[in-house]
Amino acid sequence: MQQIRLWEITSDQKLAEIPVDPISLEERLEDWLASDIDVLDANLLVIGRQVETDFRGKIDLLCLDGLGNTVVIELKKERTPRDVTAQALEYASWVKNLTSERLIEIADRYFESSDALEVKFLEKFREELPSELNQDHRSLIVAEETDQSTRRIVRYLSEMSVRINVATVRHFKGADGREMLAQVYLIEPEVAEERARAASKRKGVTLPSLQAEADGNGIGEMFRRVREGTQGVLLARPYPGRVFYVVQLADGGQRTVLIVWSELPEEGGGMSFRIHATRFNEFRSVSKAQLLEWLPERTYGADVTGWSGSSAAEKASAEGLGGTFQSVEEVETFLAGLRTLRES
User: Fold this and answer.
1) Strand partners for 231
2) Collapsing DSSP states into helix, strand and coil, what is residue 23?
3) pLDDT tens, 132-151?
């Protein structure tokens, strides 16, 4: 069983453990998550609650992530852990076939307004709503506790590239009556994401296929130069519609520092980018000011607080940069800066 414990530092600088409060958490948790899903993941937007499926079951919460992919969230409630795992997989089998139009209808009912999803998505992610939603999907089970058998099953499914995870949430109540929530994932989100990227390669999403897509969008040369110019500094990881560039850590972990993707010609064209400036500084000793010298003048501040693998401290201080390369010359200026890292 995953244990979550909290302590407070008293006025005399001693530690006092805050006890778990086993009140009806699950009856209140859905309300809390619907009002602030960031408790689980800052990269989620709730678009439906108690969403009725075609086989009469109801999904507790249905979300979109920042790429427009669907996330099924199921609370354990009074079901056994095995039952809720099976239920989450059944719902995922239904959600994977939802069209963009159907998802927009679900969101319109939830927000009680037509066309609300585009506004909510832009407010949440500082990105336009993708034209094609639900290119991928995953499931998240939320429970106060899970048994060893369930944890073993979920780990096995994850290792087999089924996108499912468990978040254990505990409720605490201090002596002064203050209430607190804490959560921990069974599988670290970054590990789950890396497995998903590996699976995407098997599904045909590869660097060559993304290169072909970039060629079709008129930015093939820019895309190719970034792929080649980042070698020795960053590792490329393909994902539907975009490439994640990561740094490899000494402990075997990885952190995404750069994402690039094609903009359609009718939307202005070029190769868009997002950069996690805080991570660039931490892992490659490149300041935000230095990055701005390498990037186009049109570069702007971008929200990266919800990027996978971010600690609470990093989320609080994370700075990002975003923009679009419009020419090979702009790409080369950026790559010239990266080459100084490879040569140092």
Assistant:
1) none
2) coil
3) 888 889 999 988 777 888 88
